């Protein structure tokens, strides 16, 4: 029986890892669909490349920094299991290698979120360097504090599948990037008003949300790392309810405020619901999951408007979908975690737990968010000085990163008719 459970657990984790890795495809469609045609090939290609970099760095040092034994520093960082060999732990309930692949996928998602803040204006070389440094200096410490037995874990921080570890971390890195890179050409007028730089393919964006929604079952339900008692089904149920509620809430609020049902806002609402429930999916009742997702859908609408009013150009809305919703999702366990389900930490405020768990959640948000932002900002600031800037030239940005960084458009046939000749003599597009 133990051998059967070991194999079933291992198979479930492997399936979940595949689902999470396929979410990278969802992010490719999300980012390309939400940005302009002239940058589509660049965005798709750099996403695959940076996941490759993340995977190698995670194998070399990332996994060890998160799950390794840090000795006297174990509260803060792991310092063993570098260059992971696939060695099995005695008495483990699942195969160690499949767990490693599963965690690799999470690290890759965090990096993909971070790079949303770089879209349409960062040099390719910046992606390459920051990918390595983020995978070593930003993501692992936070993951260790919460998932690797670090000091926040000792305090009972509840983050089942990564509203803080993955989503808030990535969003804070994206915020640092948007500040240092500054807005895209044409995003804001001299009077401070914003222009809509519409993404070129809303169908891509909708398809991306569906792929991410499905992949999220691996993200959340897979984090049970067990098939025992079928608890992963309950986690999946909560995940789906929150996503559905976020979708409906974002559509409703945009319709009420704008007078039109905004499709892009609805799609962001679905993602916000998914991000928000990621921390609490194993700790809350179904009605709590519904409320968490609904609030996230409303929050993402106002969050997007908040950042735009402050001239922060976030093409993929990473700050709102992953940042604001990640904060709300993390805090929500401090309200909705039930006595029966709070296997980590304590019940929430609405279940007689008082403010203690809410305080722990708030502490985690503040410390992890600040750490991710400060370290990312510091890395990018130094890179800006050493590398002669983070951003492509004005000419290259107008031309599009497909051509300026790679020498070919993602849609060469469609752009041919809109081509013009750049000063370099190359045929380019200004779309």
Defining traits:
2 domains; mainly alpha; two-stranded antiparallel ribbon; 65% helix; Ammonium transporter fold; 431 residues
Secondary structure elements and their pairing?
Blueprint: H1 2-34, H2 40-67, H3 96-114, H4 124-147, H5 151-154, H6 163-181, H7 202-220, H8 231-258, H9 263-280, H10 286-309, H11 318-336, H12 356-386, H13 394-399, H14 401-406, H15 412-415, E1 419-421, E2 427-429
Antiparallel strand pairs: 1-2
For the secondary structure, the number of strands is 2
By secondary-structure content and strand pairing, the structural class works out as: mainly alpha
Beta-strand content estimate:
under 5%
Low-confidence blocks of residues: 418-425, 427-431
Helix proportion: 55-70%
Oligomer: single chain
Question: Which descriptor suits the 3D outline?
Answer: globular
Second-tier CATH architecture of the largest domain: Orthogonal Bundle
CATH topology of the largest domain: Ammonium transporter fold
Topology as a string of helices (H) and strands (E): HHHHHHHHHHHHHHHEE
CATH class of the largest domain: Mainly Alpha
Summarize the biggest pleated sheet: 2 strands, antiparallel
Q: What is the count of helical runs?
A: 15
| Biggest β-sheet: strands ordered side by side in the sheet | 1-2
Gap from first CA to last CA = 61 Å
Q: What value does the average pLDDT take?
A: 93
What number of structural domains do the residues give? 2
Assigned CATH superfamily of the largest domain: Ammonium transporter AmtB like domains
Backbone CA Rg: 21 Å
